[in-house]
Specification:
The protein has 481 residues and is of the alpha/beta class. The protein is 38% helix and 13% strand. It has 11 helices and 10 strands. The strands form 2 sheets. It has an 8-stranded mixed beta sheet with strand order 7-1-4-3-2-6-5-8, with no helix packed on it. A two-stranded antiparallel sheet has the order 9-10. The termini are far apart.
Length: 481
């Protein structure tokens, strides 16, 4: 038979695939190296008080997954021991319990490994699980014998009554009982997962319970007060009901009011906060006003009483003009060449410096001036500015109170006060130029004239028709321009 080259290649590929499939089946499916050669497995000995029905070839599970098999079960002087072959691909904590369980009522025992904690060392080849950490299911024969003895001890008539009553009690409750058992099982499993937290809760409950015991008197007092409040609520039940019924409507009205005041209320509250801060700062002054105001009203009403019922109802007043007594204070203000005449009607910017009478605080000039302002936040201190009030700087008069003109803030800014220096001999004295004087011609008939700024002004006292006799009041009133 002649085989072509293509057929030979196909047969070779088929043979190779067959060999690979057989190897895979022996290694991964039948697990020949693991079962017969012990590859990828390690041995752990499990001490048991009895076999508990465990047999060779039984499964070994860890967290519900199969991780090995029982390689052998043999007797020992103290009971029995099982040789476990475990898969080395799964790391199992050494701190664990090993329990023998039954899959069904007729047998099929297996070993369940239950770790006590996730950290710590893992099981390794040759480890031994002591009998104190293992358990086996109860013997079914002994359980049946105990059940028979218990049933024999119960009279049959009474036992029949129990069965009948149990049927009556639980008839039709199969689904509910099933859900109860399922829920209990799930609850037990969840409790097992949170065992550490529950143990911590139990350990931490003792200090809380001790504190409750130590504060029993306070708890009794609180309970008594609560009983009093409850009794008051009971006695005023109608009022409480009215409050509950009308409270939502009132709350709605308040909410609508706040909605209407949404834009203006925050501004008003902010302004009130500022006013309140001012009120707190000036509280002593407000108290003084409240104390002195009634006395001031009394003094003001005093001149009205003598002529209250007389023919001429007028107060008793006495006007005394004390001009220049004492003379006005000029220290600390602008020099004369910078003082604006009162006839000027423009409005220039005010000087940037603080202008006030800078004589000593006990001087008789301008005794209520800025230099004697009381500091609200520093009781007993007087200063002309808030900055000086809040600082540790004390008020110092300008040039010891003498009339000196210059920078109003010279003393406060730390500058030296200029003093007149003697002129050396032979140096000509320079006289400062006088301020410019403007001359203009006026109309004798009307009193009109053109000023340096090009505008026309009128001064009636220059006209021929002006009143020649002057009164003393004319000294206080400027002529009309």
């Amino acid at each position: 038979m002649h085989l072509t080259r293509t057929i030979r290649i196909q047969l070779a590929v088929f043979t190779l695939i067959s060999l690979i499939s057989v190897v895979v089946m022996f290694i991964y499916y039948m697990q020949i190296p693991t079962e017969f050669l012990g590859m990828n497995r390690y041995t752990v000995t499990m001490k048991l008080p009895a076999t508990g029905g465990l047999y060779k070839g039984g499964n070994v599970t860890y967290n519900g997954f199969e991780v090995g098999r029982v390689d052998d079960v043999r007797l020992t002087p103290d009971g029995a021991e099982a040789i476990l072959k475990l898969d080395d691909a799964t790391k199992i904590p050494a701190d664990l319990k090993a329990e023998v369980h039954s899959v069904s009522a007729i047998g099929e025992q297996y070993v369940q490994l239950l770790p006590q904690r996730a950290d710590g060392p893992s099981l390794k080849n040759g480890d031994v699980i002591p009998a104190a950490r293992t358990s086996i299911p109860p013997d079914l024969n002994r359980l049946l014998d105990a059940t028979n003895r218990g049933l024999d001890a119960i009279p049959r008539d009474n036992l029949k009554t129990v069965v009948d009553e149990s049927y009556t009690a639980f008839a039709g409750l199969g689904p509910d009982l099933s859900r109860l058992v399922t829920g209990s099982t799930k609850l037990a499993r969840d409790a097992r997962k949170t065992l550490d937290a529950q143990m911590a809760l139990i350990d931490g409950a003792k200090p809380v319970l001790d504190s409750q015991t130590n504060t029993s008197d306070s708890i009794q007092a609180w309970a008594s007060n609560l009983a009093s409040v409850t009794a008051q609520l009971h006695d005023n039940d109608s009022a409480v009901r009215g409050l509950i019924q009308k409270g939502p409507a009132a709350a709605g009205e308040v909410r609508d009011l706040l909605d209407r005041l949404d834009t203006s209320l925050p501004i008003a509250l902010a302004n009130l906060a500022n006013v309140a801060q001012v009120g707190v700062t000036y509280r002593p002054d407000l108290e003084a006003i409240l104390v002195l105001l009634p006395r001031g009203v009394e003094i003001f009403q005093g001149p009205l009483l003598p002529n209250r019922y007389g023919k001429h109802k007028s107060p008793f007043l006495d006007f005394n003009l004390n001009i220049n007594i004492p003379r006005p204070c000029t220290t600390g203000y602008l020099p004369p060449q910078q003082i604006r005449p009162p006839a000027f009607e423009d409005w220039p910017d005010r000087p940037k410096d603080d202008l006030y009478c800078r004589v000593p605080q006990d001087s008789p000039f301008n005794v209520r001036g800025a230099r004697n302002y009381p500091c609200e936040t520093r009781p007993g201190k007087r200063a002309p500015t808030v900055k000086m009030c809040e600082s540790d700087e004390e008020y110092r008069p300008l040039n010891d109170g003498w009339n000196w003109k210059g920078d109003p803030n010279a003393t406060l800014s730390g500058q030296d006060i200029p003093q007149p220096q003697p002129v050396p001999p032979g140096v000509p004295t320079v006289t400062p130029p006088l301020p410019p004087v403007a001359v203009a011609q006026y109309d004798p008939a009307t009193g009109k004239y053109v000023g340096p700024d090009g505008q026309t002004y009128t001064q009636e006292n220059l006209a021929n028709t002006a009143d020649k006799e002057k009164k003393w009041q004319d000294l206080l009133v400027h002529p009309t321009q």
